[in-house]
Amino acid sequence: MADKPSIPKGTRDFTPLEMTRRNHIFDTIRKIFKTYGYLPIETPAMEHLSSLMGKYGDEGDKLLFKILNSGDFKNKLSDDELATIPAGKLGTMISEKGLRYDLTVPFARYVVQHRNEIVFPFKRYQIQPVWRADRPQRGRYREFYQCDVDVIGSDSLLNEFELIRIMDQVFSVLGLKVVIKMNNRKVLTGIVEMIGEPDRMIDVTVAIDKLEKVGLEKVMLELEQKGLKRDSIKRLAPVLQMEGSSLKKMKFLEGYLEGSHIGEEGLSEISQLFGLMENDPAEAEFELDLTLARGLNYYTGSIFEVKSAEVQIGSICGGGRYDDLTGIFGLDGVSGVGVSFGADRIYDVLLQLDRFPRKDEMDTQLLFVNFGQREALHIFPILGQLRKNGIASELYPDVAKMKKQMSYANARKIPFVALVGEQEIEDGVITLKEMETGNQERLTPDQLVDRLS
Fold it and tell me: How would you classify residue 390: left for phi > 0, otherwise alpha for psi between -120 and 50, otherwise beta?
């Protein structure tokens, strides 16, 4: 007996209705990206592992999906070597490529590889799937889509402000209430300096990034297990426990970071962004979150995260400033900043709140009943006229009982059915039936187009 068909855990099939709803998200985001002057690109699903490894930290590297070399990947290795070489080293010998973990590192590689064809500052958007060998759970998948928007080749904080406006507009158009959280990696660097652990930036930020998920006590325990001094952890606690308005937190940081040049620089950037936001406020709530760390190692300045204000779920958008990413590919001194919208989590939020537009769930607007070949030949030119005017319409393919054709229209949620029999052909009209009310009207082809437009 054949095995029951299945797909890998953490991946999904999408029904026509789900795809219609997902396309609503993609189309909304894409349209807004374009209105801000961003250009589309795409990169391959797979990259050289040398391009991916070491860019996401140790935990990120463990989540990379590696692809075995094609052909007999072990033909150059003896049985003794296969038995004795450590698994980690063996992996690099039999696998040279991996599925992309995000869209930012491939974008940095793209910029370096195509630098002679790009006009800087380069504003790009990219909507493609990414893969992570994570443990599947609600809101977390192994294959999921990201919708990235970045500008590279400019240090100006106006880019961060523009991205805030984009985030605010996307969620406003989608009808979602969100909180846009902001911090700055320079501020975090200053904090690490002030607690006396300047070389432990990665350890501290990786632990802080888990604060909301595991709680303060476990974060403190992790820092202690990683070897941070108890006195340092004690000095960090007030930062992690700080509550109140963004202004109150900034006042706190003015005193806390005094003497840290990089920390004060980060605080100045935060102040400038808040000044811009005061001049052109967002619809969404906008706040400074001192515990926001964004665990990825390549962030160097402003960092952002968007949370739903209505549904308990992880971040639905995030990103930040990266000054050194292209340098690892041989192009130094090119700063970039960007954010990534998590389409799958946005979908889950919209679904839970029942916020998808009903009109987007109706793929076909009009179904012609099939009475036979003569009637079908008469209908074809009318179908062409409807479709040229952007009205999704179709003819039932088989000559079947009326009940069956009407059941098909109901199952597909098609709002209108058209009847064209001998009398309609003779009179030059179409009988239009509205499925919800049962009302019928006789219309000419031109009137039908006007009615459905």
Answer: left
Same domain, 373 and 246: no
* Same domain, yes or no: 12 and 157: yes
| Nearest C-alpha neighbor of 445 from the set 430, 425, 423 | 430
Give CA separation, 434 vs 80, 165, 431, 448, in Å: 75, 42, 10, 12
Q: Is the peptide bond before 5 cis (omega within 30 degrees of 0)?
A: no
- Cα separation values, 29 from 246, 248, 344, Å: 28, 34, 13
Residues 93 and 106 in one domain: yes
Per-residue pLDDT averaged across 325-338, rounded?
88
Task: Give a yes or no: residue 367 inside a domain.
Answer: yes
Give the distance, in angstroms, between the CA of residue 22 and the centroid of all CA atoms in the same chain: 11
Joined together, the tokens standing for residue 434 give: 């509205």
Structural domain count of the chain: 3
Give CA–CA dist 209/364, Å, rounded: 46
Whether the per-residue pLDDT at 208 is higher than 90: the answer is no
- For residues 42, 359, 339, 34, the Cα torsion angle rounded to the nearest 10 degrees is 60
CB of 273 closer than 8 Å to CB of 182: yes
Summarize the confidence of residues 46-63 as an average pLDDT: 85
Say how far apart CA 1 and CA 300 lie, in whole Å: 56
Contacts of 299 (CB under 8 A, 6+ apart): 185, 320, 321, 322
377 Cβ contact list (under 8 Å, min separation 6): none
Amino acid at 406: M
What is the 3-state composition of the chain as percent helix, strand, coil, each rounded to the nearest 5? 45, 20, 35
Per-residue pLDDT tens digits for 265-319: 999 999 999 999 999 999 999 999 988 987 667 789 999 999 999 999 889 999 9
Report the distance separating Cα 16 and Cα 270, nearest Å: 44
The band of 173, judged by pLDDT with boundaries at 50, 70 and 90, is very high
Amino acid 30: pLDDT:
98
Q: What is the pLDDT of residue 453?
A: 87
